[in-house]
Amino acid sequence: MRDFVLANTEARRPPLVPEITLRLADEPFELWERTGEALPYWAFAWAGGQALARHVLDHPDLVAGRRVLDLASGSGLVAIAAALASAASVTAADTDPLAVAAITVNAQVNGVCVTPRCADLLDTSAGDADAVLAGDVCYDRTMAERVLPFLARVAGRGIPVLLGDPGRAHFPKTGFTALASYPVLVTGTLEAHDTTPTTVWLHDRG
Fold first, then answer.
1. Is the pLDDT of residue 38 over 80?
2. Where are the alpha helices (DSSP H) in 10-132?
């Protein structure tokens, strides 16, 4: 899987987070045809992830010394930002084995320690994490209906939960406090506009 990631991507720096290098693809649908399975979320720097990674790097106190879980990690962008911001440990969870391979490659490229985990954690309690990060996880109704109760349970235990969202239709209008907004330049055909306004939110129960 590592070979597939390397063969189908190039080393690039996300526009909003140039401190980080990722293996990224040009267009999602061409790569989707090659995988023959789920949309390869791991091969793109989505707006929600870029904004959240930027915010973590600019405010390292949010994660410094904490055990961080990056949920639906994709490329590992947010997890890598947390590691660069001095998190005590970082787990990057995703259900796609190719994402786990991409996270491993990207963490090595950036010289940070991130533990990839191929698992669906949405029915768990987030283990020993004492901070949870989620970039762009409300992209469809099915995902939002599963991930939002998980985030609420975690936040209800007093654990900080931060989410990056570019105005997805299934992101709730209540229950979160806006921390910052960023204009995210998105390449290719990932979004309807080249620049996507994206907000970093804190779950109110955390």
1. no
2. 28-35, 47-58, 77-84, 97-109
Summarize the confidence of residues 178-203 as an average pLDDT. Answer: 82
- Gap between the Cα atoms of 120 and 139, Å rounded: 17
Is residue 198 within 8 A of residue 182, CB to CB? The reply is: yes
C-alpha distances (whole Å) from 1 to each of 13, 89, 125, 174, 206 are 22, 25, 29, 40, 37
- Asked whether the beta carbons of 10 and 23 are under 8 A apart, the reply is yes
Residue 34 backbone phi and psi in degrees, to 5? -75, -35
- The pLDDT tens digits for 102-114 are 999 999 999 999 9
**Residue 128 to residues 84, 112, 205, Cα–Cα distance (Å):** 20, 20, 18
Q: What pTM, to 2 d.p., does this model score?
A: 0.93
Element spanning 154, H or E: helix 141-156
Task: Give the strand pairing for 161-165 and 176-185.
Answer: unpaired
Question: How many residues are given for the chain?
Answer: 206
